[in-house]
Amino acid sequence: MRNQEIIIDLSLHSAQEKWKPPMDPWYKLNVDAAIDKEGGIAGLGCIVRNSDGAVMASATIKKLVSGDVEQAEALAILEGVKIACDSGLQPLIVESDAINVVNLINGKLSSKGEIIWIISEIQNYVRKNKFLVIKYVPRTVNVAAHHLAKLALLSKESSIWMEETPQELEHFL
To answer: Which of 35, 60, 81, 89 stands 20 to 30 A from 162 (CA)?
Structure first.
């Protein structure tokens, strides 16, 4: 029975959506968060790639959080947008697997009080940059950002790489 489940999981995995590069001249930012609830720490992962799929920037960031996953996911989007915009990596498509956070940013859900300030700051970036789009993607599209978020939890400090990634991520690109 267990072997059948594994076979089914593998067949479903191969049919799942995967990351695709943006159209030129766009950049694509993928973000994700992982939480250590006991420590009150979130690991944020961000990766920006161009239309050829080349990595333009990547980051592992540690932040204190209240344990709320949506707060951490919103922080990942905010930090990723800041890195991309500060580096001139625009026009920009932001992809996140946090559907509620994406819907909050895009005005499709009423705001949650705990993360309203983060959502407002992201919305300010969107208003100022007409070529900044934030959209939901399934986790299978967000694998690189997910692994960066996990790596951030294991790291002693936050790091940003320009035109490269940590060696531990190479397998997931």
So the answer is: 35
33-52: average pLDDT? 94
pTM: 0.87
Give the Cα separation of 123 and 121 in Å (integer). 5
Long-range pairs of 153-156 with CB within 8 A, sequence gap ≥ 24: 153/34, 153/36, 153/41, 153/42, 153/43, 153/62, 154/43, 155/43, 155/60, 155/62
Task: Express the helix, strand and coil content of the chain in percent, nearest 5 each.
Answer: 45, 25, 30
